């Protein structure tokens, strides 16, 4: 019998990077390695995952690896580890369990990135002591995980929690990639605020805001401009925080959580939550007795840890 | 041993009437009786329930009554039958199990009216063969029941599904009783469309619309006026159907149901659903593989039947 600590080899495939690491049952990351990821197709994304696992595995693991847990962007069936799609418009179902089993012969579990983050909250984070909570990720996009009666909800097709496509402003002229107008994602996500700011640049020649080398205007730049009374930043961020608050309260009325936990890049530094709170209505929040807070887990590692916890619980989350 | 059919004595307390009846396990109503209800306070409402049960019980029951099931407006804990409140601003918790036990000595179960309607759908209606569905009631107010993995969700304080307070139009000048602006309830509920139409009467002196003896402008009158090109009716009903469609799609993205079932007085006659469908987006509805439909259960009896089913399942729904 091995004296080594039992670990899960966890993979977190994001839009631009892939993180792989060994995680203990307490959520400690013993070692990790970062790769670039290619998610321009599911096949290429699968190759990114395969390469990462082969490389890590062949270099030798620290602990006794007992399972593999995978977090990935897109829609994933946690029962059988079928990864339906990254982009809803191109569905090419891939069974990750079948595709990856020969590398290590270990049991394989997989879930969508926001579901994995919610699992991490539930087992390691601030969702540990409540039966009912929601985790909302405000990052490049927006999505949520809903936990009721200690169970994470997946919906009938593993598509629940796609709350970035909740319309909060149906008279808006801002169209979302989903086709509807006034969704919260193009108003309050990282990509959304960048796009909204860029749309306004021609109207306000006095602004100092400009795109970075990736064609984006990031939250830190917008916050700085906001504090300097830049009209674009004020318009975009006031709308973003209002839309985010509206989404939170809409979800509270729908799911009645005891606690609301926010995560994702938009929450870095505390500015976004502080301004969201200005728009919260006491009546709407009255049953959220354990409050609204930002995750205490490291946003760069939350999905990796969640993928590991999913594998340790054998998908029973 | 009694040869009588086993029944539940079910009570449905609404805003203006109370229905009591004996329901079999197949959902057949053997006998029923209607009373006026007084819901101006919880105590008066409790007296309405007591009187109805005493009267019915003393007149003799048809079957062998094995339990009592109560559906009532407001927030109710189905575990212990505590009725927290009718109006969220005045909470006077009453334990219905304790208060009513001496009348019949039978076990007592209780849930909120929309939860009862959802239970009826789940056991007797179109939710019978799906694991995940949502039932949305468009009546005087708007609320929903969410069933996932065959379980009805209640939230942390029996307040889930209060989706009438989902903001769909945050720039709206229409304020809801909850304090927020642009909630779907004041735009798309029976009371809401009446209020919206009344607000416009002074602006359109040419309209034939007028309040009925209760100070309301009902959906049938508005539909008739709409078809006669009345500008008030067109403004109000186009907005109502758009807001209703928006709510449905927002809930679909949040909970990922296989089927959406609509009920409540607004659905009578088929006009409302036909016009809602004009606003539905294929992308948003693509996973609702079992479709959007109006309940097949009689809207006047759905909560009564649900209360009976709740009692038969001993609250395990």
From TrEMBL, chains A, B:
GO molecular function terms noted in the UniProt entry: kinase activity
Keyword entries, A-Z: Kinase, Transferase
Keyword Magnesium: no
InterPro entries, per database record: ATPase_NBD, ROK
Superkingdom in the source lineage: Bacteria
Keyword Ribonucleoprotein on entry: no
Family: Belongs to the ROK (NagC/XylR) family.
Alphabetical list of PANTHER family matching this protein: BIFUNCTIONAL UDP-N-ACETYLGLUCOSAMINE 2-EPIMERASE_N-ACETYLMANNOSAMINE KINASE, ROK (REPRESSOR, ORF, KINASE) FAMILY
Protein name per its UniProtKB record: Beta-glucoside kinase
């Amino acid at each position: 019998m091995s004296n080594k600590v039992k670990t899960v080899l966890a993979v977190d495939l994001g839009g631009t990077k892939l993180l792989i690491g060994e995680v203990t049952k307490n959520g400690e990351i013993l070692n990790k390695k970062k790769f670039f990821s290619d998610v321009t197709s599911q096949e290429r994304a699968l190759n990114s995952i395969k390469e990462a696992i082969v490389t890590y595995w062949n270099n030798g693991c620290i602990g006794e690896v007992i399972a593999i847990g995978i977090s990935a962007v897109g829609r994933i069936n946690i029962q059988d580890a079928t990864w339906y799609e990254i982009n809803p418009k191109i569905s090419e179902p891939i069974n990750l369990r079948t595709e990856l089993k020969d590398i290590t012969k270990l049991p394989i579990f997989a879930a969508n990135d926001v579901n994995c983050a919610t699992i991490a909250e539930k087992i390691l984070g601030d969702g540990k002591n409540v039966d009912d909570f929601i985790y909302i990720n405000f990052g490049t996009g927006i999505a949520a995980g809903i936990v009721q009666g200690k169970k994470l909800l997946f919906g009938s097709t593993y598509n629940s929690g796609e709350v970035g496509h909740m319309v909060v402003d149906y008279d808006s002229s801002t169209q979302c990639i989903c086709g509807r107008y006034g969704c919260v994602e193009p108003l309050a996500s990282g990509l959304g605020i960048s796009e909204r700011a860029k749309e306004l640049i021609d109207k306000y020649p006095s602004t100092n805001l400009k795109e970075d080398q990736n064609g984006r205007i990031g939250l830190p730049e917008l916050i700085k401009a906001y504090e300097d009374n830049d009209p674009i930043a004020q318009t975009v961020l006031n709308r973003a925080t209002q839309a985010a608050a509206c989404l939170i309260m809409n979800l509270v009325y729908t799911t009645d959580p005891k606690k609301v936990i926010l995560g994702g890049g938009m929450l870095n530094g505390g500015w976004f939550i502080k301004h969201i709170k200005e728009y919260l209505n006491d009546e709407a929040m009255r049953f959220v007795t354990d409050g609204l807070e930002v995750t205490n887990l490291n946003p760069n590692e939350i999905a990796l840890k969640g993928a590991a916890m999913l594998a340790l619980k054998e998908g029973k989350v």
